[in-house]
Model the fold of this input.
Amino acid sequence: MKVKNSQSFLSLYYEAGAVEVATGELRGDSGVEAWSRNTKSLGQVETPRPVGDLMARWVMSTKPGSVLDPAAGLGTLLDACRRECASAQLVGVERDAETLGRAKVQAPRGTKLILADYLLADAGLFEGIIANPPYVKAQRLDYTEADWRYFEERFGTPLDRLTNLYALFLLKIWEDLALRGRAAVLLPAEFLNANFGEEIKERLVRELRPAGIAIFSPSLNVFADALTTSAIIFLEKGAMAGPLRAIRVDTLEDAEVFVDELLAHPTVRKHVSYTDVAHFKPSDKWLNVFLNGPTPFDTARFPKRIGDYFNCRRGIATGSNEFFCLSASGLREHHLNQAHVDPCVTKAADASGFVFSAEKFSALATADRRCYLLNPRRDGRGLDRYLQIGERLGIPQRHLPSHRPVWYLPENRAVADIWVAVFSRENVKFILNTSGAKNLTCFHGLYAKPGCEHLAPLLVLFLNSSGGREAFAQVNRFYGDGLNKLEPKDVEAMPCPEMPMLRRTDAEKLMRRLEQLESLPEMERSKEVDALVAQYLKSPTLASAQ
Done:
């Protein structure tokens, strides 16, 4: 059983020297910039003051006796709480010893600072919790399988092993929030679309029932140097069940008005409309609804999924592009030849248009781009000397090379039929690959399933049409500053029309037509693509939609 207001006993739970009491006060932005640079590897990013003030208003609105920041950093969020209420006992948990030392002289005076891993600690219940949890992907976490099972038992939900650290923080914050307590948690909004977020959203709907969720528009990039769309989740434990209000905020004023309404302080400035997500399916991509609007999607036009026809795999990850990717001049310099490399597109900027042909690859090589991937199939003195260079650089000890059977041999990946750009800002690149080149992680690769070998040109045509843009909007993930991202499972889940099987001659004819379309002006090209989609798919609903 947890003890309420247990911060007075926290020193009993940790080893000697792990509990400090802050002696200073936060002085503006003193040291914040340098701290942020030094702690990005830990997933720590400083919270902008206007956002922290919003969060503190909610947390401190019930005059809590105790307030916890489980990822305290330098104590800026606790400082925002102190400005709201001078009497609350403040407690900060921080995993990084160096950051804790700096917080001792910068956090609000009298704050109890604890050096601990919050997820594995038991600090009792708090009437107020404010947090900007660290953003750390699961692949970089050092938790064991036993730890994950402990989290599942403690939080009462199954967890995808790709769950990000901030999502684990959200679940534990709920567990540590006292009855009638309030919490404000700032986190990336990607979990509203991510596959690992399904369990988190299920908990939101079933149990957490936040008082509100404010989702920041990508144009309002809360963190100037972090490519992520942000959200604040406002929690209240034991409140009467009501609508699960979520809004998109385009300005900080929108967020302020929303907090006013959550606190039952209606404002005359303006009213922000919200969406009740209580009936949303956890498997749906919630973020798309807020950023694109709840536009109806005609499933009759798109009854299939790309995964019905193609498998999608991420591109090749090298572990050191500087070493493994070479240009033509690099091959000559190190006395390597075509038997030592595979043709490979290493940057998204190196491929454009509807078709990436052998001629386009040749142009890359002539321009001395790094378009060759080390994959030796023959020995030689030049190769031996180049591998020795890699050994002197410590390449075999890097994470990916060290986990390969032979450190210098890349992942076994066939040449993809279609490339799909992982990141985009406006239109996504969907490119038919006829060059014979492989691709790195800048692109995902689509591989035709048995019986679908001649469908690649038709699928590329559809994906570059207005219908393809509709389909993309159903699955894409939003990051900050207008950046979009696709994962392989997103690509396979993208809706599409039923595809007729093409003969090889028809596929080749369409491929040549795609190459011709590249030279047309954009408006004319778009109209022609839509007309060809309707023609090839022979669908009256598609034709009428053009």
Notes: The chain has two domains: 6-292, 304-545. Residues 68 and 221 are 26 Å apart (CA to CA).
